[in-house]
Design a protein that fits this description.
CATH class: Alpha Beta
Shape: globular
CATH topology: Spore Coat Polysaccharide Biosynthesis Protein SpsA, Chain A
Strand content: 15-25%
Oligomer: single chain
Order of helices and strands: EHEHEHEEHEHHEHHHEHHHEHH
Distance between the termini: 46 Å
Number of domains: 1
Number of helices: 14
CATH architecture: Alpha-Beta Complex
Structural class: alpha/beta
Largest sheet: 7 strands, mixed
Helix content: 40-55%
Number of strands: 9
Length: about 300
């Protein structure tokens, strides 16, 4: 029987958050297809592995842990982007050979709709489906930077790599994974593997609806998005029914006690995992300048903009 194959990857520090992502997927899955998680284990303790597995199996999902700690990728890391981010590039060779399609998800997100809708999306013959990144596309400065470093010209789209639908048959046949790895190993890219993916797949990926990867430049509706009608309209449409809420960037929901719309979704699904009793919050190593009150204010302003527009 066909099953929905989902890949997540984390080290021990992000294991709890991976379990939250898994719980959100299973809670909202209404379709008939079973879900199988291929979880890339980059040094997760036995205790936390057991917690992730219990979270998945209690909700009728299946899970396979794939150890990755011995795999070497010589590439640039910084801030909140660690080694585990590059493991998605190894998906075609590490998941079983009979798996021809996967959904890859970062672990700093929750899924709010039925993942089967994403699974069933037509990629139009492309090897990759992803969501345009409004944080890059709405910034003139970042567009110039991407043209200078990646050759992606103004008017071309650039995607966020936190949610991807991957045609593994095409990836294996064309050796896309090694291509991106060579690209990121040579380039000291600002946006790490995401830049490498965009460079290799330029003009060869299928844009997916924005609601399937709602990142901060969408859910906070900053001025750079609001002042460009093309991006503003897409963002407002995505916020009507967000399907994936993704805390991409420096601010993570678990760094703060529960407070309003910014992190309530994380805590809702945390309560439905084997990590429900974990000590919270869990501040990051660099909390300088971070304020959940500021994030809440941005979200309240976004609500106001939604009403005005």
């Amino acid at each position: 029987m066909e099953e929905i194959s989902i890949v997540l990857a984390s080290d021990d520090n992000y294991a709890q958050h991976g379990a939250v992502a898994c719980a959100s997927i299973l809670v909202n899955h209404k379709g008939e297809l079973p879900i199988h998680f291929y979880y890339f284990d980059d040094g997760i303790s036995e205790e936390k592995q057991a917690g992730i597995a219990a979270t998945v199996t209690e909700r009728k999902g299946a899970i396979t842990f794939i150890p990755t700690v011995q795999r070497e990728i010589q590439a640039h890391t910084s801030g909140h982007v660690n080694r585990a981010a590059y493991l998605r590039l190894l998906i075609p060779e590490l998941v079983p050979g009979n798996v021809d399609r996967v959904i890859y998800l970062d672990t700093d997100l929750v899924v709010l709709d039925d993942i089967q809708e994403l699974w069933d999306m037509d990629l139009g013959g492309k090897p990759l489906g992803a969501v345009p990144d409004l944080g890059i596309l709405a910034s003139s400065r970042m567009r110039r930077q991407k043209e200078e470093t990646l050759g992606i010209k103004e008017g071309k789209l650039y995607f966020n790599s936190g949610v991807m639908v991957m045609d593994l048959k095409a990836w294996r046949e064309n050796q896309y994974g090694p291509q991106v790895i060579r690209c990121v190993e040579k380039g000291n890219f600002r946006h790490h593997d995401q830049d490498g993916l965009n460079k290799v797949f330029q003009d060869n990926w299928q844009p997916l609806p924005l609601r399937w990867n709602v990142i901060p430049p969408v859910f906070t509706l900053p001025v750079k998005v609001l002042k460009k009608s093309r991006w503003r309209n897409l963002a407002l449409e995505a916020l009507e029914h967000p399907a994936v809420f993704h805390w991409a960037g420096r601010y993570k929901p678990w760094e703060f006690a529960p407070k309003g719309h910014f992190n309530e979704k994380y805590y809702t699904y945390l309560a439905q995992t084997a990590f429900a009793g974990a000590r919270m919050p869990q501040p990051g190593t660099d909390m300088r300048g971070k304020s959940v009150t500021r994030q809440e204010l941005r979200l309240k302003l976004a609500e106001l903009w939604k009403k005005l527009f």
